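#struct-queue
[09:14] JT: dropping the first one here, sequence first, then the structure tokens:
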Amino acid sequence: MNKTAQELFYSLIGDAAEYYGANPALALAGKQFSIEAPKESVLLGAIQQRSNFLEKINCVLVKDIKGQLIYGATEKGITGRKTDGRYTATLDASGYVYECQPTDSGVLIPWAKLDQWGHLKDKFASLYAEFVQNQIALDMIKIGFYGTSVGTDTSDPNLADVNKGWIQFVRENKATQILTQGATSGEIRLFGEGADYVNLDELAYDLKQGLDARHRDAGDLVFLVGADLVAKEASLVYKGNGLIATEKAALNTHDLMKSFGGMPAMIVPNMPPRAAIVTSLSNLSIYTQEGSMRRGMKDDDDKKAVRDSYYRNEAYAVEDCGKFMAVDFTKVKLSSGKGTWK
């Protein structure tokens, strides 16, 4: 780092240590420091605000590393009457549990990038925070959709072995809510002749019908859909209407694809390109255990970079599995237009 960037970086560490109540000398030496309440909520909120999607789901702190879901699901109504007293009903929770796993986000920020930020002195701290928190937010989303296991030494490029995400949570707790095949064993065929679903409206509607009956008409349902599926649908619409290039430009793909099956559609960053899910955003949760957060920033001469780390215990949960229906995106096949599927 050049002198300006170095001064700004160490000033940033000092300010962070003071804000979080850490020992400044240890923080400046590159040691990890704990983040305690209420600052935990501030950091979690800052990360959440880096993503429009994360802002709309539940990102909450929990006391225990393992336990019952915070919101959970109930299976019956509580309203009625009795001739011999007041009417009451006992609501049994779903019984689903969360379990936080050690989660370590670490990124190397090259000296060259820090030097660039150093030219914008007043913006150095905000640029640094934005860079790190954006990366963390994107990873949280990716784990939520791709995660299938908790590995000891992780290596999957899609972070599938970091933690069990939302789809895996439902797969393990209510497997009927994950569609694994259509008419052909082991495949879900979309678009074209002989497809299980000829368009995304059909798919979205069928997934909605797979929800528990009490949720099918919920006003907060959304259709989370992967970019490959939307691109294929848009291509077929353009081709079917014989649109020329200028007409295609005028017909905004985002507007064209903003709803399916009577539900608003969302394409989420880092979502599997062939995924399709019907749920409500308030049904998706990420839990972080209180007292588990650690932060650290260190200049690494060997890497010619700054090492930033954020450690915590984290879990993914679907509060009501009956309000979640998805395809197994690894089984989705698209028509090639030549009678084959890939």
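[09:21] JT: and here's the second one, same format:
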Amino acid sequence: MLKALRDIRTLRVVIYHPKDRERDELVAQIRRIGCEVEAVWPPPEKLRQDADVVFMLFRQDGFTHVLLKALAESGSQASLIAIVEFESPAVIEAVARAGAVSIVTKPIRAFGLLTSLVLSRTISAKEKNLIDRARKLESKLEGFRRMEKAKAILISRKGFSEQEAYDTIRMRAMSARVSMDVVCATIIDADEFIGL
């Protein structure tokens, strides 16, 4: 079973939608699914940080702009589900720019809400995993660059071969009980200091 489906009852859901019959039905259906839900209108300047899923009405008005700005500033990790009344180029662009991972159309119906919740959490988890992997790879690549730069410094300053430079870095790291990356950074910093 999908983790997102297993964890559905633990989700904290926030709905940014004007109070009307459709919002009340959406709140009731999400409660029936088993999620903790809060409906908010008008949109606050600061959004909740602890929400797992945000349902947000997208339309061409000032409230949508305020919500999008607050969403961008919050740095929230919540999965965004867009509620769309009609498809205009401006609304579609706003939904795409906001990073919505699922869409619910108006009039809102109970059918498809569970699927939207599960799909949004699954996509968000995969996206987070990819971002984390990219950061790790960037960090690793930066470590390789530092290693190459430190080896180049030892080769040019001490006349070492590439293997001797690597072995020197490795031995210093082992004797100091630190990572090779720390030794490389120290060599680079010392070279930059001397180069001043």
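[09:30] RK: nice, looked through the second one.
[09:31] RK: The longest strand covers residues 53-58.
[09:31] JT: good to know. The mean pLDDT is 86.
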